[in-house]
Design brief:
about 180 residues; six-stranded parallel sheet; Rossmann fold
């Protein structure tokens, strides 16, 4: 038995790609500390020799910000080193990418995942929800995620901070345990 409470958890870093840095495409974002917190989690997991999964979105539309082969498809500099597993996906959930994340976790007898990345309300949320529905213990590193401002169906402006707050609140205690990076490292 280990004293490490996260020994059975893989770190899943979702879509921390350069294409999300295009403000003309995505607009206002919240949490400028997101990337620093992602880097801290990667460093802590690597130091503890825990498994790390990088997830990359292949946005297959020509000219898309995350189009394979484009500069935006690359990981941001904070996503450093070689992961234990690289999952590529064309949909929102890392569990629907290639190779099969759930099978990889089961093959290693890993009971859970710690999820961080971009964006809180899309691919991070979908990965968290599916992970929980598949029976994994899911921890969301909330301060290692961010969202973008949205426009509601009636044209109302929704600030990025509100998008993150509502997303994280809807996941907390239902699909994941919400934690701060400082508590995980």
């Amino acid at each position: 038995m280990t004293d490490d409470p996260h020994a059975g958890h893989a770190l899943v870093v979702v879509d921390v790609q350069r294409g999300f840095d295009e403000p003309d495409v995505f607009g206002e974002r919240d949490n400028p500390a997101c990337e620093d917190n992602v880097a801290a989690l990667i460093a802590a997991w690597r130091s503890a020799e825990r498994p790390i999964v990088f997830v990359r979105h292949d946005w297959e539309e020509p000219g898309a910000p995350l189009e394979p082969g484009s500069p935006g498809h690359a990981f941001k500099a904070v996503v450093s080193g070689t992961p234990d597993l690289l999952v590529t996906k064309t949909v929102h959930s890392a569990f629907l990418g290639t190779p099969d994340l759930a099978a990889w976790l089961h093959d290693r007898d890993l009971e859970g995942i710690v999820v961080c990345g971009i964006t809180a309300d899309h691919c991070v949320s979908t990965t968290v929800r599916m992970g929980a529905d598949l029976g994994f213990d899911v921890i969301l590193a909330a301060d290692a995620t961010h969202a973008f401002a949205r426009t509601g169906p009636a044209g109302e402006a929704i600030a990025a901070e509100t998008v993150s707050l509502v997303t994280i609140a809807s996941l907390d205690n239902e699909f994941a345990t919400v934690a701060a990076t400082a508590d995980l490292v």
